[in-house]
Amino acid sequence: MTRTGAVDVHYPETGGGRAALVVGAAPTFPSIVEERVCWLDEVAPYEPGSFYKRELPAIHAVLAGVAPVELLIVDGYVDLDAEGRPGLGAHVHDELGLPVIGVAKTSFRTATHAASVVRGAAAKPLYVTAVGLPLADAAEYVRTMTGAFRLPDALRRVDALARGRG
User: Which of 61, 72, 95, 122 could pair with 150 as two cysteines, CB 3.0-4.6 Å apart?
Assistant: First the structure.
C-alpha cells in the first residue's frame, strides 16, 4: 500500500489561506484514513506564473505533523507544457522529493501532454500530469479512484475542507 495524500488550498477574500489534506492508504483512496486542515494568517500575494510561491508554504504547513505520505496529489498541473515548464506539481516534487500527480479540472492551452481522464458518466475529462511515476499509472489511479462522479471522492472532500465546508 502507498500512503497517498491529496492537498488543496483556498484563499478567502478576507485574506489568509486554508490548506487541507486527506490521506488514503492507497492511491485510489478506498477510504480516507486521515484529514488535516490548517489556517495561514498570511499568504504571499498571487503572482502570475509563480502560483507555487503562494501554495508551497500552505502545503508544507498542512503536511507538518502527519505521518509521511509516499505520493501526493495536487489540484493543478505538474508541468505546463510538453517541454516541462514547471507547474505547481513540479515545484512540490522538487521541494519535497515525492512523486506527484497533478489533477486539473480545466484544460491549459499548452498542456497538450496531459492525459485526459473521463470518469463515470462525465462528459468532461480531468487533466492528469505526473512526476516521479509514469503518466499512464497516474492516469489509471485517477480513473479508478473511489467515487462515482467526475471528481473523485477524496478530491471532492479535500476541496470542501479547504473551503471550510468540512
Answer: 122
